[in-house]
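All the exercises in this workshop are built on plain-text protein records. There is nothing in a record beyond a sequence line and a structure line. A learned vocabulary of local backbone shapes supplies the integers on the structure line. The question running through the whole workshop is how a given chain folds. Here is such a record, shown just as it appears in the course material:

***
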Amino acid sequence: MKEHIAYFDVLRVIAIFAVITLHVATAHFYDTDVLSFTWGVSNMLDGLVRWGVPVFVMISGALFLDPTREIDFHKLYSKNIFHIACALLFWSICYAGVGFITGPSQGNIEKLLSHIVIGHFHLWFLYMLLGLYMIVPLLRPICRDIKLVHYFLLLSLFFSFLIPTIVKILTGLDLTFPNSIYSKSLRVVNRLFEQTHFHFTLGYAAYFVLGYYIHNLQLSANQRKVLYLLGILGWECSVLFTQFVSRTTHQLFDFYTGWDVMLPILFETSAVFVFVKYHIHMLPAKLISVFNYLSKCVLGIYLVHVGVQSCLDVCFNLSSTSFNPLFSIPLITFLVFILSWAFVEIIRRIPLLNKYII
């Protein structure tokens, strides 16, 4: 039996808090005045917690790409992929059903079926996991050769992180300074990127391999400090750039939309992963056992938390805009976590549901 990796439990729990914080902070991000205090706080937190999903992916990569773990096609498809597919189908039906009964698509069969197939907005995570699990047999041989790992990560750094970051920065500058050199530069970079037709290391596969790599990497104290500094700078620069473009143009510019593979998020994610890895020894044993227990509920909490948050907003008018966001966002985040955890605990006690949908 493989040794239990305690710091993964801590990462899972803080990552689900990051994801909930993100969704609470940005629930009204697009319909709030970009000049307002509320939007400013939301923007700050938006940039601070974008590492949540990438950390989940890195943990999965560290586990699935470990050459010492036995993972064959049968186990991969009959256990891991089947579990995710069942959870995806069940929760897609649940969220689509609620929308069919009470939402804007009330009574519309065509939209019901469409929402079941596409899934609620946060269920993209399960679709992404399915894709990553399917390429595990292709990535595992790469991870047996450290030179190939370095080559894969180098290609990822350039194609998956650097180019999208440049494109996003140029897009923001083009909005701020129309018909300038940034417009021409953006067209050139986009054209060059499209012409390569390079996809192999794109997307979350980069975080998947990075998780395996960092888990097995030993860093000196000075190297870790540099990484932490990059994480802080990544957060500050992305928040300030988003604020600068949005408030200059008087329209929302979201630095992150569609791009969790951005250099600032890469720095933040790596910093969080490494910090927990090297500082878990500072936590008391009882607290580590609490993290271990809660980590078993994390997938379920992820799947139900959006529904819980929506209920609090619609039924009780509890959202980031209800009162001072410095207090409303942390309070609602904690409340959503507790209620979601309680709901998951009920599901865990129901045979079959416990096994297949959370």
